[in-house]
Amino acid sequence: MNQFIEFISSPWPWWVAGPIIALLMFALIYFGNSFGFSANFRTMCSMFGAGKSCDFFDFDWKKQTWNLVFAVGAILGGFIASQYLTSGDAIELSEKTISELQGYGIENPGADIVPMSIFNFESLFTLKGFIFIILGGFLVGFGTRYAGGCTSGHAISGLSDLQPASLIAVIGFFIGGLAITYFVFPLILPI
Is 77 exposed, middle or buried, given 0-12, 13-18 or 19+ CB atoms closer than 10 A? Predict the structure, then answer.
């Protein structure tokens, strides 16, 4: 059992994960489904009766049950991995990244998955925490709906279907991520 835990806990090479994702995408295309994590929000709203007052939510949500099962599995898998399969070692970051993040005031960069000095409940009541957690969360949710899907939906499913809109969305994701990282992040972190 320890060998199995060690095997699944270690990083897997791209040539294992890539073909698994490709096989999954071929199966989804074959069965006429598309993948996207944010589609579950629409499904849940429809489940709870939002289709009675809004046409967008008026669809047969039972056909999307597989996607809800995937979402629950991803959440449970993330919990199990973080609680039982992590070594507790610091995340490997380059020295340049560590020094840059420390220069912005982030304590112990790489010690946790996210900087706990920013992403904690007490930070909600600070300007920096409000910007990162509340405003950032709103912008991600709004952007997901405005772009017609999330990064997994466009970058994995949409590109697999050769959809031009997904290619444009993925290019926009990268441009937005780079712009935030290099222009906005340095202005907000020192707050």
Answer: exposed
Q: CB–CB of 124/134 below 8 Å?
A: yes
DSSP type of residue 157: I
Which of 70, 7, 77, 67 lies closest to 42 in space, CA to CA?
Answer: 67
pTM confidence score:
0.71
Tell me the pLDDT tens digit for each residue of 23-71: 988 888 888 887 778 888 888 989 999 888 888 888 888 888 888 998 9
Q: Which residue type does 136 have?
A: G
Cα 69 to Cα 111: distance, rounded to the nearest angstrom: 31
Please answer whether residues 71 and 47 qualify as being in contact, where contact means their C-beta atoms are separated by less than 8 angstroms. Answer: no
Determine the length of the chain: 191
For residue 10, give the DSSP letter: S
Query: What is the token pair recorded at 21?
Result: 């994702």
More confident position, 50 or 189: 50
